[in-house]
């Protein structure tokens, strides 16, 4: 399998067996070979998808020579280190070879001279062919660098979209929070704690297991004391203090600062001047044309070499010294052409090398920019999540304070509702039981009468004249309803209602009285 180091433009052939291993294991192998720590490796596939370290390498359709896994080294990019200059493997043009060609051109027209020139032509062709193969690999690496860059840009775009979505969600949540912020401040200024502290808690409302596990300072405890016993780690005052600090901290100015940072970061990520390398496609097209030109030049070198070699064989077979003069003159012209082509191929090699080095330098700067932007977005996204969690926690505390604000009135309403339901339950069960008894008597009487008549007519031939006489009476309300409201607080709370009315003056007290309405006993509400 193949891994391509984008910023250096270097292909790393890896063991094919690694495709069956995890991505994490592949990263470890890369670390041991390239000395790039696992934490600083970023692996992308074509299209910009980031490879998950926990997945298997074979789960991604990449890793071939034509479609490698793209490797980026964050430690080199973060330290602003420029990638090393690409080594040609050929150095500069061989001056010793040029000198040998010059000497061969000055030799007399002998068969030995012909053999020497054959060797030089063959050597130049093979050497130039190796340079062409090397240049072909350079061009392939340039195209892979471009594709690796496009993968990095696609990954940045995906990261930007995710960050933008997170920023919009934070903006929406914070805007909704700001709409309610003034109301929350008003809530905190109310004297609800004093009201709750004056409101006694009816003993019958406290579950037995709870009253046994919690010790109160006196027999008659207040609703406020009971609430504090529920919040063991903090008091109501501490919750209110936390809310005040939170409301003061998360204000409009704070929101504007966060929005400014987010907007600036998105503008930086959407910088088209950095995301697009100007005229890169044109440069690669020109380089591809240069490669084709190199191939044509090498083909000419091959033709000249074969021609010189063929002429030498003919001269050797004929053993005729008279043709050596014309043959050597022809060889001189071809050697001069091959030398000129050889020098030009080296010129093309230097252009390929310069293009590769130039693109590597550009990519290093651009990839460093992408790394910086993505790290900034990651850090900012963590901040947004932190702020969102804090706002969520603040809202939970504010909702608790809202419940505390509603507690006195709701408490008294609930006590009233208990009394109303107790009264209603007794009346309803008494009424429904009476109705059930009447319905049951009627049902049994009617059923017996129908059965008695059916026994007579069913045996007589007249039953065919009277259809529908077999219907049975439907059972309606023949069973009394089961007891309900059995889990309501016990009746002894009634004995404690008077102290509640006496102590609470600022809360509307609702007293339940009973009245008869259309013959049915119903609750009556009197507000005092």
From TrEMBL:
A Pfam family of this chain: ATG17_like
Keyword Thylakoid tagged: no
BP-aspect Gene Ontology terms: autophagosome assembly; autophagy of mitochondrion; glycophagy; piecemeal microautophagy of the nucleus; reticulophagy; ribophagy
Keyword field: Autophagy
Source species, domain of life: Eukaryota
InterPro entries per record: ATG11, ATG17-like_dom, Ubiquitin-like_domsf, Ubiquitin_CS
Keyword Ribosomal protein: no
UniProt cross-references to PROSITE patterns, sorted A to Z: UBIQUITIN_1 (PS00299)
GO MF term set: molecular adaptor activity; protein kinase binding
Signal peptide: none
Autophagy protein ATG17-like domain mapped to chain residues: 135-457
Gene Ontology CC, one term: phagophore assembly site membrane
The protein's name in its UniProt record: Autophagy protein ATG17-like domain-containing protein
Record organism: Strigamia maritima
């Amino acid at each position: 399998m193949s891994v391509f180091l984008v910023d250096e433009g270097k292909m790393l052939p890896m063991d094919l067996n690694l495709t069956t291993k995890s991505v994490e294991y592949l990263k470890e192998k890369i670390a041991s070979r390239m000395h790039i720590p696992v934490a600083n490796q970023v692996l992308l596939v074509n299209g910009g998808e980031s490879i998950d370290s926990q997945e298997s390498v074979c789960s991604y359709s990449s890793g071939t020579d034509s479609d490698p896994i793209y490797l980026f080294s964050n430690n080199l990019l973060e330290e602003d280190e420029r990638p090393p200059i690409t080594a040609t493997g050929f150095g500069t043009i061989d001056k010793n070879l040029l000198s040998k060609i010059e000497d061969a051109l000055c030799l007399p027209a002998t068969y030995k001279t012909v053999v020497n020139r054959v060797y030089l032509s063959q050597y130049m062709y093979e050497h130039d062919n190796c340079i062409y193969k090397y240049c072909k690999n350079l061009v392939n690496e340039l195209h892979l660098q471009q594709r690796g860059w496009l993968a990095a840009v696609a990954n940045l775009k995906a990261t930007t979209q995710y960050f933008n979505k997170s920023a919009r969600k934070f903006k929406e949540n914070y805007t909704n929070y700001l709409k309610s912020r003034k109301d929350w401040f008003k809530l905190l200024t109310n004297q609800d704690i004093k009201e709750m502290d004056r409101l006694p808690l009816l003993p019958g409302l406290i579950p037995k297991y709870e009253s046994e596990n919690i010790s109160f300072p006196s027999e008659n405890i207040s609703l406020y004391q009971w609430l504090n016993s529920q919040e063991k780690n903090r008091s109501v005052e501490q919750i209110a203090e936390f809310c005040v600090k939170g409301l003061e901290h998360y204000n409009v100015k704070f929101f504007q600062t966060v929005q400014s940072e987010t907007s600036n970061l998105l503008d930086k990520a959407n910088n088209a001047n950095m995301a697009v390398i100007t005229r890169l496609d044109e440069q690669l097209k020109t380089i591809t044309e240069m490669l084709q030109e190199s191939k044509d030049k090498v083909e000419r070198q091959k033709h000249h070499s074969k021609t010189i070699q063929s002429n030498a064989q003919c001269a050797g077979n004929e053993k005729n010294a008279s043709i050596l003069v014309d043959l050597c003159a022809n060889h001189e012209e071809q050697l001069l052409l091959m030398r000129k082509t050889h020098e030009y191929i080296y010129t093309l090699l230097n252009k390929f090398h310069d293009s590769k080095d130039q693109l590597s330098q550009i990519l290093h700067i651009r990839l460093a920019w992408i790394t910086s932007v993505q790290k900034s977005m990651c850090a900012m996204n963590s901040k947004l999540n932190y702020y969102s969690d804090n706002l969520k926690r603040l809202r939970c505390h504010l909702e608790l304070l809202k419940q505390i604000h509603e507690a006195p009135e709701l408490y008294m309403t609930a006590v009233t509702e208990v009394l109303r339901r107790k009264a209603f339950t007794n009346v309803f069960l008494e009424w429904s039981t009476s109705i059930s008894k009447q319905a049951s008597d009627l049902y049994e009487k009617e059923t017996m009468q129908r059965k008695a008549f059916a026994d007579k007519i069913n045996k007589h031939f007249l039953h065919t004249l009277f259809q529908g006489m077999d219907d049975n009476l439907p059972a309606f309300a023949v069973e009394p309803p089961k007891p309900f409201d059995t889990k309501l607080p016990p009746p002894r709370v009634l004995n404690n209602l008077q102290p509640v009315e006496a102590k609470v003056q600022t809360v509307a007290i609702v007293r339940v009285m009973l009245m008869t309405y259309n013959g049915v006993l119903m609750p009556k509400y009197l507000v005092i």
